[in-house]
Task: inverse folding
């Protein structure tokens, strides 16, 4: 049976008290990761806080008019209906949306905790690591505590002109949550792996993040992790 990677995506079209800030998912990150997983023989399924259509961030690359009609984008499953045992790995694409909804979503926090507790591979790219901030380990610490990570940097949000429209600095929140955050120059591909956690810094890192997740899901790597545990 073909194994499946779950993409947990935002449901947030816009953020701010008056909905004045564009949100959504960054389409190119979604598409780049999908191509890698499909090429490696994995199915992809999508989930989001409220289910249904996944909003796409303006300017995120969906020039093909058919892209928003993709079934994966049109009919995501509500998070409350997801069973983590049905999936091989969990991936969070970025775009501003996760910083408005997934960061505070209890269903997402519990789902993420279940994936970590089972030792399954978790990946996130760009703004996507915001979805990891609420979840806690069994010892009460954040799941990101003392994990090597990356995510969109303050320098990149400034250069993109997005710093004032986001609810917080992801770089600072990762550091304050106990993560060992690192980065490269804005726009450079950069991926950090720590055990079963893989994070990518920016749009350019989505494909490489997915490729590293595939490597970690290889049976030989899973066997080595079990031996080390």
Result:
């Amino acid at each position: 049976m073909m194994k499946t990677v779950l993409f947990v995506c935002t449901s947030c079209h816009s953020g701010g008290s008056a909905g004045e800030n564009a949100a959504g998912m960054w389409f190119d990150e979604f598409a780049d990761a999908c191509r890698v997983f499909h090429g490696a023989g994995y199915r992809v399924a999508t989930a989001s806080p409220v289910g249904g259509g996944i909003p796409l961030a303006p300017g995120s690359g969906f020039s093909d008019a058919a892209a928003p009609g993709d079934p994966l984008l049109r009919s995501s499953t509500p998070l409350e209906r997801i069973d983590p045992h049905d999936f091989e790995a969990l991936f969070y694409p970025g775009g501003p949306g996760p910083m408005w909804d997934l960061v505070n979503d209890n269903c997402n926090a519990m789902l993420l905790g279940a994936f970590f507790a089972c030792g399954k591979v978790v990946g996130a790219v760009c703004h996507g690591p915001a979805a990891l901030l609420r979840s806690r380990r069994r010892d009460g610490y954040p799941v990101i505590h003392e994990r090597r990570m990356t995510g969109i940097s303050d320098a990149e949000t400034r250069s993109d002109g997005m710093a004032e429209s986001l609810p917080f600095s992801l770089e600072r929140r990762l550091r304050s949550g106990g993560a060992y955050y690192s980065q490269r120059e804005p726009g450079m591909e950069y991926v950090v792996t720590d055990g079963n956690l893989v994070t990518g810094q920016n749009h350019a890192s989505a494909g490489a993040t997915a490729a590293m997740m595939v490597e970690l899901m290889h049976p030989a790597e899973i066997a080595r992790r079990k031996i080390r545990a």
Summary: The radius of gyration is 16 Å. DSSP finds seven helices and eleven strands in the chain.
